[in-house]
Structures are given as structure tokens and as C-alpha cells.
Amino acid sequence: MFKTTNISNLACSLRNTETDEFITLENPTANFNYSFFGRSGKSIFKFNIDEAGKYELKAWDYQFLFL
Q: What is the reported pTM?
């Protein structure tokens, strides 16, 4: 868990671990902020999950891929 105000180099992927299908991450059509259990943030993606299952969310700073 980390805190930042700059996510300009953020890259993410969302994958169904059972089918290996990647879920499309899109820019949100509205800005949403949340706060619960002492954590807060804002929406950065929207996506649809059509079936229940196990999904893997990965996030990384792609700036470090080119060092």
C-alpha cells in the first residue's frame, strides 16, 4: 500500500485467472472519490465483469521499465 498524488506513469491490467482473459480498463466517465476503513482515493478506471470468478489486478510504474 502506498500513497501518491502523481499517477502519470501508472499502468494496470486486470485478468480473469481462470480463463486468462484480460478485462478492458477504460477511463471513468465521472470522477468518484471514496473513503472507508481509513483509506481514501479516487476512481481511475472503469470496467465490467460479466462473470463471477477470480481476477488479478496488477499495477506498476512503467517509467521504471525503461531504466
A: 0.73
